Amino acid sequence: MKKLITSAGLAALGAASLNAQQVYAPAPGLTTTQLSKPWSVSAAVRGFYDDNYALTPSGGYVDPVSGQRIKPQSSWGYEVTPSVGLNWAMEQTYISLAYVYSAKYYEDRRDNKWDQAHQVNFKLSHAFTDRYKLDLQDSFVLAKEPDLIAPVNAPNVTLRTRQDVLRNYGAASFSAGLTDQLSAVVGYSNTLYDFSDEGVGSLSSLLDRMEHLAMINLRWQVLPSTVALVGYNFGAFNYTDDELTGIANPNFGSSSLQPILYSDNRDMYSHYIYVGIDHSFNPQLEGSIRVGAQYVDYYNLPGDSKTEWDPYADANLTYHMTTDAAIQVGVRHSVIATDAAALGQENTTVYSSLNYRVLPPLVTSLLAQYQYNTFQEGLPMLGGGGVSFKDKAENFFLIGLNATYEFNKFLAAEAGYNFDRLDSDLNFRSFSRNRVYFGLRASY
After folding, report:
1. What pTM did the predictor assign?
2. pLDDT tops 60 at residue 386
3. Are 424 and 430 in contact (CB under 8 A)?
4. pLDDT tens digits for range 243-295
5. Which domains does the chain have, with CATH numbers?
6. Exposed/middle/buried for 189, CB within 10 Å: 0-12, 13-18, 19+?
7. Taking a C-beta distance cutoff of 8 angstroms, is the pair 379, 363 a contact?
8. Which of 231, 226, 355, 349 shows the shortest CA–CA distance to 286?
9. What is the helix (H) or strand (E) element at residue 14, kind and residue range?
10. CA–CA separation, 141 and 18 (whole Å)
11. What percent of the chain is predicted at pLDDT more than 70?
12. Which residues, in sequence order, are bridge partners of residue 383?
């Protein structure tokens, strides 16, 4: 479904900030244990309880085929997660490759009791000189669980679905020091989504797409602790499914135009123009802000294109209390994709994460997020009673508490709780979900 912050993405950010026991230029964040050998293996076994694993609307709904009322479904279960990783840390180059497999068993499901997920992550960082650096990464996921589908560089993105989803995210960036004070960063990222369902109004028709984003920044070292920048990004959403979406054509007014949009009729271009500052207040506190505008062009609408200007913002503040404790808060605002009967949605996300080592063997993390979305122009032809989705809003809340007790460097106990809630102006979308888990992780 629509894009939301995920606990998995925020947890990854938190872990990266806390693993700075040893900082290696091409591979920051690796511990001395990880750098001591080029490979690692781990396996986790967890028990869990999920009170709404199908993400059913809180009040339930009537199945249009069977006529039966479908209510939220809950289940106990267990999960097995083995993984293997390779790390090569050289003088100027770092390369990593990791594979994670997950199998979840839901005891109370009548059919399809197993959910399986595959993740493959690759990263390469090479410093040619002190001034020139290249970074490459790729993340492949095949899964049902929405927490796993977010691109690794954008923890505010996930999809609410119980279908198999293939998502691949790749990115490249090159930074060059032009002078002692002036540098440039150019980059490109690509994200592919492919859903397993088919048919009119399906998630495939609404969300199968390839996202392109190219960027260029000029950065000026104003002070030793302050960098000012100006940037431009170009984005393109190309919807790849060739099916009817069930969305009315906003330009429909005569028999010469098609009344319902096809997938690629929602293709759009985005131009981002922004200025920003990165500032280190002291060795523990640092902040970043980007503010500007996003110009959106739905250029492939039958009849006439639709354009609009929207504000764009991305800001965060990070405080490192100790090497084992950090807190981050941030906000983002932009136009994103949606599976509702609308062209897109304007999104504002406020998020925070706290990681803290309570005791030498006990590490905890607290994650919280709020998201507000308003739908852009749209009118459903299939369902929805002909009610326009324009300016309808949704609120999403997420909170997660996780704890890890390290018996030694090879064995740890894990436990956690996650709560998700979506309140929507649209029918049959609001839901809530509670999850708890507990288990053991072994690493070598």
Report:
1. 0.81
2. no
3. yes
4. 888 777 777 665 556 778 888 888 999 999 999 999 999 999 999 999 999 99
5. 7-443 (2.40.160)
6. buried
7. no
8. 226
9. helix 7-18
10. 25
11. 82
12. none
Over the stretch 119-153, which tens digit does the pLDDT of each residue have? 999 999 999 999 999 999 999 999 887 666 665 44
Cα 192 versus chain centre, distance:
13
What distances in angstroms separate CA 439 from CA 366, 404, 419, 435, one per listed residue? 18, 10, 19, 14
Calculate the CA 26 to chain-centre distance: 24
In our burial notation (b when 16+ CB lie closer than 10 A, e otherwise), range 411-426 reads: ebebbbebbbebebbb
Q: Which two tokens stand for residue 78?
A: 């267990």
Contacts of 258 (CB under 8 A, 6+ apart): 249, 252, 302
Residue 17 has pLDDT above 60, yes or no: no
Distances (CA, A) of 16 to 22, 23, 31, 109, 326: 12, 11, 10, 36, 10
Q: What is the pLDDT of residue 89?
A: 86
Residues 6+ apart with CB under 8 A from 359: none
Residue given tokens 């994709």 in the structure block: 337
Return the amino acid letter for 103: A
Report the candidate in 39, 294, 6, 40 with the shortest Cα–Cα distance to residue 156: 6
* 308 contacts 298 by C-beta, under 8 angstroms: no
One-letter amino acid for residue 435 of the chain: R
Return the DSSP state at 15.
Answer: H
Cα 232 from Cα 216, distance rounded (Å):
6
Distances (CA, A) of 349 to 268, 339, 384, 387, 440: 22, 18, 26, 26, 33
Tokens of 247: 């969305």
